[in-house]
Amino acid sequence: MGRTVFCARLKKEAEGLDFQLYPGELGKKIFNNISKEAWAAWQHKQTMLINEKKLNMMDPEHRQLLETEMVNFLFEGKEVHIEGYTPPSES
């Protein structure tokens, strides 16, 4: 097991990321406060969001939208709402 962080998303000690995966101050915050497990969950949601909303990562507005969703998911405990997608538990 690598480094351990108290994960802001999972609210428990968990294995931390091996290196900073996101730039800047937010990247440092993620590196210090988000576990591998929570980051993997976000990556899954991010892919679904990009596909559903047909986001273009070259578009600054699209990147900002994704970053806002990421912060809400990782630090605010909010779920990502993906239109047309119903989690299996709710169907």
Strand percentage lies at 5-15%
**CATH architectural arrangement:** Orthogonal Bundle
Q: Indicate the multimeric state.
A: single chain
* CATH topology-level name: YggX-like
Element-level helix/strand string? EEHHH
Rg over CA atoms, rounded to whole Å, is: 14 Å
Largest pleated sheet: 2 strands, antiparallel
Q: Strands across the major sheet, in which order?
A: 1-2
Number of domains: 1
Number of helices: 3
Q: Determine the fraction of residues in helical runs and give it as a percent range.
A: 40-55%
Helix vs. strand class: mainly alpha
Regions with pLDDT < 50 over 5+ consecutive residues? none
Report the count of strand segments.
2
Shape: globular
Mean pLDDT: 92
Give the class-level CATH name.
Answer: Mainly Alpha
Find the CATH superfamily: Fe(II) trafficking protein YggX
Q: What is the first-to-last residue Cα distance?
A: 37 Å
Function: Could be a mediator in iron transactions between iron acquisition and iron-requiring processes, such as synthesis and/or repair of Fe-S clusters in biosynthetic enzymes. Necessary to maintain high levels of aconitase under oxidative stress.
Protein name: Probable Fe(2+)-trafficking protein
Organism: Vibrio spartinae
GO molecular function, one term: iron ion binding
